[in-house]
Amino acid sequence: MKKILSIVIMAVFCLTDGAHAQGKSEKGQGFKKGVGKVWQGTKKGAKAVGNATAEVASKGKASVTDKKSKQWVGPEGQTVYVDDANKHYWINGKGKRIYVSEAALKARQK
Hints:
This protein has a domain at 38-110. The chain has helices at 2-22, 27-65, and strands at residues 67-73, 79-82, 88-91, 97-100, 106-107. Helices cover 55% and strands 19% of the residues. It has a 5-stranded antiparallel β-sheet, covered by helices on one side. It is an alpha+beta fold.
């Protein structure tokens, strides 16, 4: 008798618990907004870390394979590198090479 009673109580509990889980709640809407904000923050942070890593890697490679220009700096004071073909470039915040003409370069201040 105790087993039957416990099975009936367990069945009633399971059936009513499932009904509560399917109802709409106002609390869930705030949760979705919070998840969206967290996702956007994570995405923004990951992009910033990726850009910084690419910049450091590009500058490291450029300092090993190419020469630093001792007489020129970029339009905004960036370090200018000279490759094997005598082309001048600097590396932006995303790790990409920005090639510039000698007319756009500034003389390095001592």
